[in-house]
Amino acid sequence: MNAFEDSDTMRETKQQKIIILTAPSGAGKTTIKTKLLAGMANQLSFSVSATTRKMRGGENDGVDYIFISEEQFKEKIDNDQFVEWQMVYPGMYYGTTVDEMKRIWSEGRTPLLDIDVKGALNVKTMFGEQVLTIFIEPPSMDILQERLMKRGTESAEHIHTRISKAKEEMEYRNSFDKVIMNDDLEKATNEVKEIIAKFIGQQLRNINS
Protein backbone atom coordinates (compact mmCIF):
# COMPACT_ATOMS: atom_id res chain seq x y z
CA MET A 1 0.00 0.00 0.00
CA ASN A 2 1.22 3.54 -0.72
CA ALA A 3 0.62 6.56 1.47
CA PHE A 4 -2.20 7.85 -0.76
CA GLU A 5 -4.36 4.74 -0.71
CA ASP A 6 -7.51 4.56 1.43
CA SER A 7 -7.15 8.13 2.67
CA ASP A 8 -8.71 11.57 2.35
CA THR A 9 -5.51 12.68 0.62
CA MET A 10 -5.94 10.07 -2.11
CA ARG A 11 -9.52 11.19 -2.77
CA GLU A 12 -8.46 14.83 -2.87
CA THR A 13 -5.57 14.21 -5.25
CA LYS A 14 -7.87 12.50 -7.72
CA GLN A 15 -8.92 16.06 -8.56
CA GLN A 16 -5.33 17.21 -9.02
CA LYS A 17 -3.15 16.89 -12.12
CA ILE A 18 0.33 15.49 -12.54
CA ILE A 19 2.74 15.79 -15.46
CA ILE A 20 5.52 13.27 -15.95
CA LEU A 21 8.53 13.54 -18.25
CA THR A 22 10.60 10.45 -18.74
CA ALA A 23 13.32 9.36 -21.14
CA PRO A 24 16.47 7.30 -21.41
CA SER A 25 19.45 9.04 -19.82
CA GLY A 26 20.94 11.44 -22.37
CA ALA A 27 17.77 11.98 -24.41
CA GLY A 28 17.57 15.67 -23.43
CA LYS A 29 14.80 15.45 -20.87
CA THR A 30 16.56 17.61 -18.28
CA THR A 31 17.12 20.46 -20.75
CA ILE A 32 13.49 20.36 -21.86
CA LYS A 33 12.34 20.27 -18.23
CA THR A 34 14.48 23.32 -17.39
CA LYS A 35 13.02 25.32 -20.30
CA LEU A 36 9.47 24.39 -19.33
CA LEU A 37 9.94 25.40 -15.70
CA ALA A 38 11.55 28.70 -16.70
CA GLY A 39 8.51 29.72 -18.73
CA MET A 40 5.73 28.12 -16.70
CA ALA A 41 6.68 28.91 -13.11
CA ASN A 42 3.14 29.95 -12.20
CA GLN A 43 1.65 26.71 -13.52
CA LEU A 44 4.28 24.05 -12.86
CA SER A 45 6.66 23.15 -10.07
CA PHE A 46 9.41 20.57 -10.24
CA SER A 47 8.88 17.63 -7.92
CA VAL A 48 12.33 16.97 -6.48
CA SER A 49 12.97 13.22 -6.27
CA ALA A 50 14.89 11.51 -3.51
CA THR A 51 17.83 9.37 -4.59
CA THR A 52 20.64 7.32 -3.13
CA ARG A 53 23.05 8.02 -6.01
CA LYS A 54 26.04 10.28 -5.54
CA MET A 55 25.75 13.97 -6.34
CA ARG A 56 27.29 15.00 -9.66
CA GLY A 57 29.25 18.17 -10.28
CA GLY A 58 26.99 21.20 -10.56
CA GLU A 59 24.07 19.55 -8.76
CA ASN A 60 22.54 20.94 -5.57
CA ASP A 61 20.93 18.95 -2.78
CA GLY A 62 17.22 19.73 -2.49
CA VAL A 63 17.17 21.37 -5.92
CA ASP A 64 18.16 18.69 -8.42
CA TYR A 65 17.56 15.76 -6.08
CA ILE A 66 17.18 15.07 -2.38
CA PHE A 67 20.34 13.05 -1.77
CA ILE A 68 19.93 10.51 1.03
CA SER A 69 21.53 7.25 2.11
CA GLU A 70 20.18 3.84 1.18
CA GLU A 71 19.26 3.32 4.84
CA GLN A 72 17.24 6.57 4.90
CA PHE A 73 15.55 5.65 1.62
CA LYS A 74 14.48 2.24 2.89
CA GLU A 75 13.16 3.83 6.07
CA LYS A 76 10.93 6.07 3.96
CA ILE A 77 9.71 2.99 2.06
CA ASP A 78 8.82 1.30 5.34
CA ASN A 79 6.92 4.42 6.46
CA ASP A 80 4.93 4.73 3.17
CA GLN A 81 6.48 8.12 2.41
CA PHE A 82 6.78 7.58 -1.36
CA VAL A 83 4.17 7.99 -4.08
CA GLU A 84 6.43 5.75 -6.17
CA TRP A 85 9.96 4.45 -5.95
CA GLN A 86 12.25 2.26 -8.03
CA MET A 87 15.71 0.75 -7.88
CA VAL A 88 16.65 2.12 -11.30
CA TYR A 89 20.18 0.70 -11.28
CA PRO A 90 21.65 -1.89 -8.89
CA GLY A 91 21.83 -0.25 -5.46
CA MET A 92 20.63 3.09 -6.86
CA TYR A 93 17.16 4.12 -5.70
CA TYR A 94 14.91 6.98 -6.85
CA GLY A 95 11.52 7.98 -5.46
CA THR A 96 8.81 10.68 -5.39
CA THR A 97 7.85 11.65 -1.86
CA VAL A 98 4.31 12.23 -0.66
CA ASP A 99 5.39 15.46 1.05
CA GLU A 100 6.80 16.90 -2.18
CA MET A 101 3.56 16.28 -4.07
CA LYS A 102 1.46 17.77 -1.28
CA ARG A 103 3.70 20.86 -1.16
CA ILE A 104 3.22 21.61 -4.86
CA TRP A 105 -0.53 21.03 -4.84
CA SER A 106 -0.89 23.27 -1.78
CA GLU A 107 0.77 26.07 -3.79
CA GLY A 108 -1.87 25.72 -6.50
CA ARG A 109 0.56 24.39 -9.10
CA THR A 110 0.93 21.15 -11.04
CA PRO A 111 3.80 18.81 -10.13
CA LEU A 112 6.25 18.10 -12.94
CA LEU A 113 7.88 14.75 -12.26
CA ASP A 114 11.15 13.66 -13.84
CA ILE A 115 11.14 9.94 -13.10
CA ASP A 116 12.02 6.62 -14.72
CA VAL A 117 9.75 4.65 -17.04
CA LYS A 118 8.40 2.13 -14.55
CA GLY A 119 7.80 4.79 -11.90
CA ALA A 120 5.90 6.88 -14.46
CA LEU A 121 3.66 3.97 -15.40
CA ASN A 122 3.00 3.20 -11.73
CA VAL A 123 1.84 6.77 -11.10
CA LYS A 124 -0.33 6.61 -14.23
CA THR A 125 -1.95 3.44 -12.93
CA MET A 126 -2.58 5.07 -9.55
CA PHE A 127 -4.01 8.39 -10.73
CA GLY A 128 -5.34 7.55 -14.21
CA GLU A 129 -6.52 10.44 -16.36
CA GLN A 130 -5.20 12.98 -13.86
CA VAL A 131 -1.70 12.15 -15.15
CA LEU A 132 -0.08 13.18 -18.43
CA THR A 133 2.90 11.01 -19.31
CA ILE A 134 5.40 12.21 -21.93
CA PHE A 135 8.26 10.08 -23.23
CA ILE A 136 11.25 11.92 -24.73
CA GLU A 137 12.81 9.74 -27.42
CA PRO A 138 16.41 10.09 -28.64
CA PRO A 139 17.04 10.14 -32.42
CA SER A 140 19.05 6.90 -32.15
CA MET A 141 20.97 4.80 -29.66
CA ASP A 142 24.26 5.86 -31.27
CA ILE A 143 23.46 9.53 -30.69
CA LEU A 144 22.37 8.72 -27.14
CA GLN A 145 25.70 7.04 -26.41
CA GLU A 146 27.56 9.98 -27.94
CA ARG A 147 25.69 12.43 -25.69
CA LEU A 148 26.48 10.37 -22.59
CA MET A 149 30.18 10.21 -23.49
CA LYS A 150 30.32 13.99 -24.05
CA ARG A 151 29.09 14.58 -20.49
CA GLY A 152 32.40 13.29 -19.17
CA THR A 153 30.82 12.54 -15.80
CA GLU A 154 30.69 8.76 -15.86
CA SER A 155 32.92 5.78 -16.52
CA ALA A 156 32.66 3.62 -19.61
CA GLU A 157 31.10 0.90 -17.45
CA HIS A 158 28.36 3.25 -16.21
CA ILE A 159 27.68 4.45 -19.76
CA HIS A 160 27.31 0.84 -20.89
CA THR A 161 24.83 0.26 -18.04
CA ARG A 162 22.83 3.33 -19.06
CA ILE A 163 22.71 2.27 -22.71
CA SER A 164 21.44 -1.17 -21.71
CA LYS A 165 18.82 0.49 -19.52
CA ALA A 166 17.86 2.84 -22.36
CA LYS A 167 17.19 -0.08 -24.70
CA GLU A 168 14.90 -1.60 -22.08
CA GLU A 169 13.10 1.72 -21.52
CA MET A 170 12.49 2.23 -25.24
CA GLU A 171 10.34 -0.90 -25.22
CA TYR A 172 7.81 0.95 -23.03
CA ARG A 173 7.54 4.07 -25.19
CA ASN A 174 4.12 3.18 -26.60
CA SER A 175 2.69 2.90 -23.09
CA PHE A 176 2.94 6.69 -22.69
CA ASP A 177 0.31 9.30 -23.54
CA LYS A 178 2.70 11.18 -25.82
CA VAL A 179 6.06 10.38 -27.43
CA ILE A 180 8.27 13.29 -28.54
CA MET A 181 11.36 12.78 -30.68
CA ASN A 182 14.17 15.07 -29.54
CA ASP A 183 16.12 15.50 -32.77
CA ASP A 184 15.67 19.29 -32.56
CA LEU A 185 15.65 20.71 -29.03
CA GLU A 186 13.59 23.83 -29.73
CA LYS A 187 11.00 21.91 -31.73
CA ALA A 188 10.75 19.16 -29.11
CA THR A 189 10.41 21.70 -26.29
CA ASN A 190 7.62 23.56 -28.07
CA GLU A 191 5.78 20.30 -28.76
CA VAL A 192 5.94 19.38 -25.06
CA LYS A 193 4.78 22.89 -24.11
CA GLU A 194 1.73 22.66 -26.36
CA ILE A 195 0.79 19.24 -25.00
CA ILE A 196 1.05 20.48 -21.41
CA ALA A 197 -0.86 23.69 -22.18
CA LYS A 198 -3.76 21.66 -23.53
CA PHE A 199 -3.65 19.26 -20.58
CA ILE A 200 -3.78 21.92 -17.87
CA GLY A 201 -6.18 24.06 -19.92
CA GLN A 202 -4.34 27.35 -19.67
CA GLN A 203 -2.83 29.72 -22.20
CA LEU A 204 0.89 29.73 -21.53
CA ARG A 205 3.36 32.34 -22.69
CA ASN A 206 6.09 31.38 -25.11
CA ILE A 207 8.77 29.75 -22.98
CA ASN A 208 11.46 30.83 -25.38
CA SER A 209 10.73 34.55 -24.96
Main beta sheet strand tally, sense and closure? 5 strands, parallel
* Strands ordered across the widest β-sheet: 2-7-1-8-9
Helix-strand sequence: HEHEEEHEEHEHEHHEH
Approximate helicity band:
40-55%
Helix vs. strand class: alpha/beta
Question: What name goes with the CATH superfamily?
Answer: P-loop containing nucleotide triphosphate hydrolases
Helix count, per DSSP?
Answer: 8
**From the alpha-carbon coordinates, what is the Rg to the nearest angstrom?**
17 Å
Provide an overview of this structure.
- The chain contains eight helices and nine strands.
- The protein has a single domain, classed as 3-Layer(aba) Sandwich (Rossmann fold).
- The C terminus is likely disordered.
- The protein has 209 residues and is an alpha/beta fold.
- Helix 2 packs across helix 8 and helix 6 packs antiparallel against helix 7.
